[in-house]
Design brief:
heterotrimer; A alpha+beta (about 350); B mainly alpha (about 280); C mainly alpha (about 260); A: about 350 residues; alpha+beta; Rossmann fold; OB fold (Dihydrolipoamide Acetyltransferase, E2P); 2 domains; six-stranded mixed beta sheet; five-stranded antiparallel beta sheet; 8 helices; about 25% helix; C: about 260 residues; mainly alpha; MetI-like fold; 11 helices; globular; ATP-binding (chain A); cell membrane (chain A); membrane (chain A); ABC-type transporter activity (chain A); ATP hydrolysis activity (chain A)
């Protein structure tokens, strides 16, 4: 086990820069996710760490060792693929034993370590089967066992849960978290699923356009997004335009929001991000609440989504638990939207998005 | 996951073999086709003439052979298409249990030695062969039919030889026809026959074209079957090349004819690949 | 609703065509066991004398031996050269890999008889006429496209990350290829090698220009001998080839699901 650090990593294909000057460090035993839409460069970074791609510039260090130009087999890394990438012609046992055999392990110790790894992913007794005889979830667990069996110093996950259906994904997420807590291996996890990234990680790096926009604890990412991209990518935000006036954000038609913190100069244009789940829907007015009318109502089981048209014409989407009284609001009815000052995210307008 | 250097190392041996024993020989053949040939003396060193190529177009005998070769190619292609489509259709759309045995029965002749297959047709078609004997015994004919050393023999023999290729191409094409489209046509009120002609057949056009080009090109290049069933007198381009090299020793004529044959196959393949590309663009 | 199953007339026509494909084979087999030197239906008398005759004839034995040696060595050589090249081409590590692929597949397109005469003039020029090695190399040229085609097809059906997984788990490039990639493309390679072997075994148009009298192969022998008319000895040797083909085809089907690769 060791820490992982990237220094000024750049990856270019011809003239296109896929990764621009990425630098970060993952401490020993830490779990860091790279989160972003497809094509943001997160997988490229992971593949460079694995040695499957060579960076155009920069350095990659595992512990004190520079591995930038080392072939993948000399890096002592575990990698779990999106497609599982199990060896279809080998049994589960041989799949898990593959890495150990490359290290010269054999006989009884090998058998013990393979079985221990399989136990850890709760697949003890499945050793004699072939991958095709297993379900998708089981295959992914074999792939994890295979990655951890040789005790890698770094563990990499490339969208490991995205090939699974929603229900299985939730189960596997818990499994993964448990595994990581037991092993405390330095982990880099790549995903486009924010729930996955936020719930699993010690820190999350949000990526866009080859640049790491913000690398921070999940709570910080969620409550204090560094820029408009992060604010709009995380959660289900509503985006409103406004202007800073007397310590509030004026939206127009007399509507104003008073955020907890406001670092923008008086009179400047601002963008406000309001998460759907952070908005309380009221039937009666309350100080500071925004007045509007229900324009649309959509029922989706546990939640009801309301589209509320504000007095100045902008529309906001809010979520109400079905059990709430306000869930029965019908189009045309008047509503009031209350937002806690700490949930009002204000960013300068026109910043990188 | 391999660097450019090791990739070149992996590919170099084969590339070298092909350059030295395929490309260079073909290139060296080109000057020969422009040399004069004096019967009894051989090639005239340092000479240059277009005569060898002009002769193919102007000389009556050459022209007959070329036209016969192309006609043979066309005939075999049409016969393969007509007989091959039902087989492919049965393989793809028939009972699944028949699929493997039928496929193997189509592949089997393909894997069987070409010379053996041609020999089989000699046994069948020769003057005192199986077919003639049978017809004579049945009293259907009084004198043996001439089934060899003419177009009939070559058409039968070559159709048999290249039919498997056609069937396999058509099987692939038929498998790619989305069944939903046929079902859609049927729900829109098309009869079975109409669904076939208006949906299935057009959708298998790439396979029909691909199979036809393959069979045509193979037929006009064939040496073994035309020689075995056509003998030394009923010539096609390939057998004529063979004779010019082995019997007449007229290498310049032979090489000119070789380039004419190679050029026609390349042109046909080039045109067809352009055609299919345009078709693919339309889909 | 019609599900576009073949109608009865179409099925009958199709079965007749499939039967037509087998006719020459049946006729050859019957001839080889028949007493008379030409075949009648029904055959008159059964005998094995043609087999005995052929298998004690040193000319035939030599031709069989030549053919087998030539086919085995050229197939193996094609396999090694072709798989290496296909791997490099597949990884697209080389600029112009498409043009190179086209060049390597070209022997399929150029008529064999043209390759034959070109090589005849070439080996005469460089003074290698009559060398068995030349014959082997010539057969590599005509068989390697089959290996290349099946190797490329098998490789493209492979999940690239499987080999990457092996690399990350500590295998060097060659080990990953040997332990993971090679076993996974083996069925395709078996099929390709079989095609290469058959192509070499039956080749006349190239071999006939290059082989000396002592190097005569079986197909050349049959090809030349039928100019003298139908000979039951040829039928006997053909029957042996037919039996060998059936066995090999069935084995290939069982090992590799051969029909999927045709």
């Amino acid at each position: 086990m060791s820490n992982l650090s990237l220094r000024n990593i750049v990856k270019r294909y011809g003239k296109t820069e896929v990764v621009r000057n990425a630098s970060f460090q993952i401490a020993e035993g830490e779990f860091v996710s790279l989160l972003g839409p497809s094509g943001c460069g997160k997988t490229t970074i992971l593949r460079m760490v694995a040695g499957l791609l060579e960076p155009t510039e920069g350095q990659i260090m595992i512990g004190e060792r520079e591995v930038t130009r080392l072939p993948p087999n000399k890096r002592n890394i575990g990698l779990v693929f999106q497609s599982y990438a199990l060896f279809p012609h080998m049994t589960v046992f041989e799949n898990v034993a593959f890495g150990l055999r490359r290290k010269g392990e054999s006989g009884k110790p090998l058998e013990e370590r393979v079985n221990a790894a399989l136990e850890m992913v709760r697949l003890g007794g499945y050793g004699a089967r072939f991958p095709r005889q297993l379900s998708g979830g089981q295959q992914q667990r074999v792939s994890m066992a295979r990655a951890i069996a040789p005790r890698p110093s770094i563990l990499l996950f490339d969208e490991p849960l995205s090939n699974l259906d929603a229900k299985l994904r939730d189960e596997m997420q818990i499994e993964l978290k448990r595994l990581q807590q037991e092993l405390r291996i330095t982990t880099l996890f790549v995903t486009h699923d924010q729930a996955e990234a936020l719930s699993l990680s010690d820190r999350v790096g949000v990526m866009h356009g080859g640049v790491i926009q913000q690398l921070d604890r999940p709570e910080e990412i969620y409550h204090r997004p560094a820029n408009a991209f992060v604010a709009s990518f995380i959660g289900k935000p509503n985006r409103l335009q406004g202007r800073i006036e007397a310590g509030t954000v004026a939206l127009g038609a007399g509507l104003a929001l008073r955020p907890e913190r406001l670092d923008l100069p008086e009179g400047s244009a601002a963008e406000v991000f309001l998460r759907q789940e952070a908005i309380r829907v009221l039937r009666a007015p309350e100080p500071g609440a925004l007045a509007g009318t229900v324009a649309l109502r959509a029922f989706s089981g546990p939640q009801v989504q309301l589209v509320v048209r504000l007095a100045h014409g902008a529309e906001i989407v809010v979520e109400v638990p079905s059990a709430e009284d306000t869930a029965s609001l019908a189009p045309g009815e008047a509503v009031y939207l209350a937002i806690r000052p700490r949930d009002i995210i204000v960013l300068p307008q026109g910043a990188a998005s | 996951m391999i660097g450019q250097r090791s990739a070149w190392l992996l590919i170099a041996p084969l590339l070298l073999v092909l350059l030295l024993s395929f490309v260079v020989p073909l290139v060296l053949l080109l000057p020969t086709s422009f040399q004069e040939y004096q019967p009894g003396q051989g090639m005239v060193a340092g000479s240059f003439t277009w005569e060898n190529y002009l002769r193919i177009a102007t000389d009556g005998y050459y022209r007959e052979v070329v036209l016969r070769t192309l006609g043979l190619g066309l005939g075999v292609t049409v016969l393969c298409l007509l007989t091959g489509y039902p087989v492919a259709y049965l393989i793809v759309r028939g009972h699944p249990r028949w699929r493997l045995p039928l496929t193997l029965l189509v592949i089997f002749p393909l894997m069987l030695n070409l010379v053996v297959r041609s020999f089989g047709w000699i046994v069948l078609l020769t003057n005192r062969g199986v077919v003639n004997n049978l017809l004579l015994d049945l009293g259907l004919i009084e004198r043996p039919l001439k089934l060899m050393f003419n177009m009939t023999g070559l058409l039968i023999g070559l159709t048999h030889i290249y039919l498997p290729f056609m069937v396999l191409m058509l099987v692939a094409a038929l498998q790619n026809v989305p069944r939903d489209v046929e079902a859609a046509a049927a729900t829109l009120g098309s009869s079975r026959t109409h669904v076939f002609w208006s949906v299935t057949l057009p959708l298998t056009a790439p396979g029909i074209i691909g199979g036809s080009i393959l069979v045509f090109v193979l037929t006009i290049s064939a040496l073994v079957t035309p020689r075995m069933l056509g003998g030394p007198t009923y010539q096609v381009m390939a057998t004529l090349i063979y004779d010019e090299y082995m019997q007449l020793l007229d290498w310049p004529s032979g090489s000119a004819l070789s380039f004419a044959l190679a050029a026609s196959t390349l042109v046909i393949i080039w045109i067809s690949s352009r055609m299919t590309r345009r078709w693919a663009g339309m889909a | 609703m019609s599900d576009m199953k073949p109608t009865l007339p179409i099925s009958i026509v199709a079965l007749l065509v499939v039967a037509f494909l087998q006719v020459p084979v049946l006729v050859v087999v019957l001839t080889s066991f028949s007493e008379t030197s030409y075949l009648t239906i029904p055959p008159q008398g059964w005998t094995l004398k043609w087999f005995a005759e052929v298998l004690s004839d040193p000319v035939y034995l030599r031709a069989i031996w030549n053919s087998v040696i030539l086919a085995v060595s050229s197939t193996l050589l094609s396999l090694v050269l072709g798989v290496a090249a296909a791997y490099a081409l597949f990884r697209k590590a080389i600029p112009g890999s498409e043009a190179i692929t086209a060049l390597l597949m070209a022997p399929l397109i150029v008529p064999s008889v043209v390759i034959g005469v070109a090589m005849l003039q070439y080996v005469t020029l460089v003074g290698l006429r009559g060398s068995f090695l030349v014959l082997i190399v010539a057969h590599v040229v005509i068989t390697v496209p089959y290996i290349l085609r099946s190797a490329l097809a098998s490789l493209s059906g492979l999940d690239v990350s499987v080999e990457e997984a092996a690399r990350v788990l500590g295998a060097d490039g060659f080990t990953a290829f040997r332990l993971v990639t090679l076993p996974l493309i083996k069925p395709g390679l078996v099929a390709g090698a079989l095609f290469a072997f058959v192509t070499s075994m039956e080749n006349v148009p190239v071999t006939i220009f290059l082989a000396s009298a002592r190097q005569t192969t079986l197909p050349i022998l049959i090809f030349s001998s039928v100019e003298m008319g139908v000979n039951p000895g040829v039928a006997a040797i053909s029957t042996l080839l037919i039996i060998a083909t059936v066995i090999v085809l069935l084995l290939a089907e069982r090992w590799a699901g051969f029909h999927k690769f045709v």
